[in-house]
Specification:
Elements: H1 2-20, H2 22-45, H3 52-97, E1 99-100, H4 101-119, E2 122-132, E3 139-150, H5 152-163, E4 170-178, E5 185-196
Parallel strand pairs: 1-5
Antiparallel strand pairs: 2-3, 3-5, 4-5
C-alpha cells in the first residue's frame, strides 16, 4: 500500500510539472482534439452500423435527391418566368383591345359612325348602358342600341366591317324593316363590348 501511494504521489508530481509547462500542456490539448476529430470523422465517413455497399447506396440516393431538387427548381423558375410573361401579355392585350369605361362610348360610337359611312349606311340615334360582369369587378359590359338606314347590300358590308373591327364588337340583335323609300331598310342594332372598369351609371 505504501509503495502504491508513493507511485501515485510521483505521478501526480510529474503531472503537475507537465501542466506547468505551457508547451507540454498545448501538446496534450492538441493531442486530445486530434483524437476527438479522428473519432468524429470515423463516425461520419464510416458509420459502425453500415457497410461500404450501404454507404454507396446512401450516396447514390443523396445524389439522386440533389438532381431531383435541381430539376424541380429549374422547372419552378421556368414556370415563374412563363407566368410573368403571360401576365404581361394579358395586360398588353387588355390595354389594347378593352377600352376604358370612361372613354368607351365615345370611342365605339366614333368607330361605328366611321364604319357606317364607309359602308354607305346612314347612322341615327344611339343609347348605351353598362352592366356588371358576373364574377369580375374589373370589367363591365357596355351595350349600345343604334338605328341606321341603308340598302341590303350596304347593311351586309356594314356587318362585315363591324365583324373585322379590333374593338371586339359583338352584335347581339339585328332588325331590318323596309321603309317607304324603295330599297332602303330601317336597321336596328344592339351591340355588346367589354370595357375595363366597374359598371357604374353612364
Amino acid at each position: 500500500m505504501a509503495f502504491n501511494a508513493k507511485i501515485g504521489e510521483r505521478l501526480a508530481g510529474n503531472l503537475r510539472r507537465w501542466l506547468r509547462d505551457p508547451r507540454r500542456t498545448g501538446r496534450i490539448v492538441l493531442g486530445i482534439l486530434l483524437v476527438a476529430n479522428l473519432a468524429a470523422a470515423a463516425v461520419l465517413l464510416r458509420p459502425w452500423s453500415g457497410s461500404e455497399e450501404q454507404l454507396s447506396r446512401q450516396l447514390a440516393q443523396l445524389r439522386q435527391q440533389l438532381r431531383t431538387q435541381r430539376e424541380t427548381t429549374e422547372r419552378l423558375r421556368s414556370l415563374a418566368a412563363s407566368v410573368e410573361k403571360t401576365r404581361e401579355l394579358s395586360k398588353q392585350f387588355l390595354e389594347r383591345y378593352f377600352l376604358d369605361r370612361q372613354t368607351a362610348y365615345s370611342t365605339v360610337l366614333s368607330e361605328l359612325n366611321r364604319l357606317a359611312e364607309q359602308s354607305g349606311i346612314k347612322p341615327g340615334d344611339h343609347v348605351y348602358t353598362f352592366d356588371p360582369v358576373e364574377g369580375s369587378d374589373e370589367f363591365a359590359m357596355m351595350t349600345i342600341n343604334g338605328n341606321y338606314q341603308g340598302s341590303y347590300a350596304d347593311l351586309i358590308e356594314f356587318i362585315n366591317a363591324i365583324d373585322r373591327s379590333p374593338r371586339f364588337l359583338t352584335i347581339e340583335r339585328l332588325q331590318a324593316q323596309p321603309t317607304q323609300t324603295p330599297g332602303v331598310l330601317a336597321i336596328g342594332l344592339r351591340l355588346n363590348v367589354f370595357v375595363r372598369g366597374e359598371a357604374l351609371a353612364p
